[in-house]
Amino acid sequence: MSGFSFTIDGVEITGAEGQTIMEAADAAGIYIPRLCDHEGLRHQGGCRVCTVKVGGRSVAACTQPAEPGLNVENETPHITKLRRDLVEMLFHEGNHLCPICEASGNCELQAMAYRLDMTDPTRFPYLEPSRAVDASHPDIALDTNRCISCGRCIRASQDVDGKGIFGYVGRGIHRQVAVNGENMAATDAEVTDFAMSAEVCPVGCIIRKREGFATPIGERDFDKGLIGHEIEGKKADD
Amino acid sequence: MAEPRLIEISPVTRVEGHGKVTIHLDRDGAVDEARLHIVEFRGFERFIQGRLLWEVPVIVQRLCGICPVSHHLAAAKAMDVIVGVDELPPTAEKMRRLMHYGQVMQSHVLHFFHLAAPDLLFGFGAPAEQRNIFEVIRENPELGRRAILMRKFGQDIIEATAGKKIHGTGAIPGGINRNLSVETRDAFLAQIADMEAWAGEALALARSYTLENAEMVRGFAAFPSNYLSIVREGDGALDLYHGQLRALDAELNPIFDGLDYARYHEMLTEDVRSWSYMKFPYINTLGPETGWYRVGPLARMNTASFIDTPLANAARDDLMATNDGLPRHAVLANHWARMIEVLHCVEKIKELLHDPDLQGTDLVAKGDRRPEGIGVIEAPRGNLIHHYEVDENDQVTYCNLIVSTTHNNEGMNRAVRDVAVKHISGQPEITEGMLNHVEVAIRAYDPCLSCATHALGQMPLQVEILDAEGAVLDSRERAA
To answer: Most exposed of A173, B117, B187, B467 (fewest Cβ within 10 Å)?
Structure first.
């Protein structure tokens, strides 16, 4: 398969047929922020945090195919503001109490807020959902007050685990992730499922019991650098 | 004849949390009633319900920003019981102890130098603009520098053991999540000689203040009471991290001793009064009238049989023998006792830093789940009790917290009344300096009103004098 050139923020990179803009950017060591996209899962284009501009149009970099000659805008002040607004709205929709959350330091939402310089409280009124924690399963708990509806667990369970533990219910602002049963204990979820692994849920919604706070501060994922630093590190290594 | 008046000191300053004092004057201007009210409410005991057990030590420490480590460790000790661990790996227990000694040190230093020193150095009735830490530093720059560096040392210890200076995550059910690197240990050891010397000098300052003002100290909100703390099992030594409950009467005779703290509720009851969010605990066998007791540094000097570090033990012997038992009940001697504990903490930190167990890698023990756990610790301000029940899904179903300031509630109220009677009764005009005397008495307990009611805030001072119908006769305000 022959490669082709296109630019991201004026930097020329090489893409390959069949790649999305995000895949080509990752390979070139350029980080495009994302929350609903995850390696090993099919692309969804739902969270829109990976929004880039191509020819003046806003597109999701995780689903938009890379093409020869594209001039992609990624980290411009305008796009960064759009992304920050999206992330702010996620904070306003849920109960993201970072100081007491066991995902703090490993949380992609928190890390994205830092990367996008969301240093002030959200301007939007908090919706403050009050959903009971589902701790019925012996090894897994769900705190859906922290869910950002990214759907990664849904795709992981359906496509990788072949189980369909999770799915969306409701519409519009009321849409949320639910389990396929009365509660987690009523499903065939296992803590070894890919959907339950630490890498799939980007926030602290899916909790593996008895692991919380075992990693000391300083050794958590994002204590080591901003979200995306590993992808950007590829460029530095070249 | 004047009308009856109500004086309100609201909020009380240079303490942690929101509180107010009301002083009721009768028609002759004599103090009829004086009370310390705690006016904030947060409800931690309720909203922790439903949370997962391993979250608890991290959540409840948010009760306080001054000594969150106390809540972190008391909750972790309770959760140790719930996860079936009766004995931690040595590295875990010693890292927790190191964290605790670091925090008691920094908290005591904060109180003595930043909150109390302005009163002690400049006088209770000194101009308000002089009574702050900046004036202390201006008057004595070297003392101020040492105060800041001692506090920093304690906070650095907390950071090394909990990951952050405030609200870290070190203790987890059954153990700890980190050990201490050799490099970090050596950095602390390089400072320990200075810390020991400075702690000794701070102790000398507190001691000389008490003795030079012996007559005033003896008469300032000084009254006998019962005392309560945990002490080390077996020999009754001062132990800030773990032990058994001991309660002594005013003559230091045992009311109960060697009590497993998991049985605290058999001996202690919390009374509720309509005018305060803070409860009034008392010893069951004595009842609420005579069963109230005090906790904290001076209480611990009274309850402990001895201190297991040589410098602090000699200092305690000195305190207990001085001036015909003067300090035993004198609230202002708390400052002296507090500085003895700072020295004790420095000695303990030094001892621990030389212990290779801190570099161990066995950090967490496991056991069989239990439904209930109680953790007790001696926080800087005194005894702290955390009690939880957890269901089979790992969710908290019950929480009861009795914090140091709550234990001291009756004592503080009596101190307020004592000082109000002596300094305000019969005065034609109530000055700011007179009201500060009331606050000095409260401050000596180093109360954390935030912890006591699980409330938080800062404290500008507003004083209003009202007539019997509630009309404002006079008011004074000052900024926080």
So the answer is: A173
CATH T-level topology, domain A83-223: Alpha-Beta Plaits (3.30.70)
The CATH code that applies to domain B88-221+330-364 is 1.10.645.10
pLDDT at B480: 39
- Is A3-75 a CATH 3.10.20.740 domain? yes
Looking at residue B165, its pLDDT comes to: 95
* Residues A29-50: b if buried by 16+ CB within 10 A, e if exposed: bbbbbbbbbbeebebbbbbbbb
The SS3 assignment for B193 reads: helix
The answer to which of A110-119, A152-161, B411-420 has the lowest mean pLDDT is B411-420
Model confidence over B44-60: pLDDT tens digits? 888 899 999 999 999 99
Delimit the domains of chain A by residue range. 3-75, 83-223
Ranges of each domain in chain B = 5-42+412-478, 88-221+330-364
Residue of A102, A217, A218 lying closest to B55 (CB–CB): A102
Choose the closest CB to A135 out of B169, B170, B393: B393
Q: Quick check: A135 and B394 CB within 8 A?
A: yes
Model pLDDT, residue B459: 38
| Chain A residue at shortest CA distance from B175 | A214
**What is the per-residue pLDDT across A180-200, written as a single tens digit (0 to 9) for each?**
999 999 999 999 999 999 999
Integer Cα distance of B388 and B374 in angstroms: 6
> Tokens in use for A181?
């049963």
Chain B interface, best mutation among A95, A209, A213, A215, by max B CB count within 10 A? A213
User: Which of B169, B180, B391 has the highest number of chain A CBs within 10 A, making it the mutation to test binding with A?
Assistant: B169
Q: pLDDT at residue B326 above 80?
A: no
In the Cβ-directed half-sphere of A177, how many Cα atoms lie within 13 Å?
24
Cα–Cα distance for residue pair B160/B157, rounded to 1 Å: 5
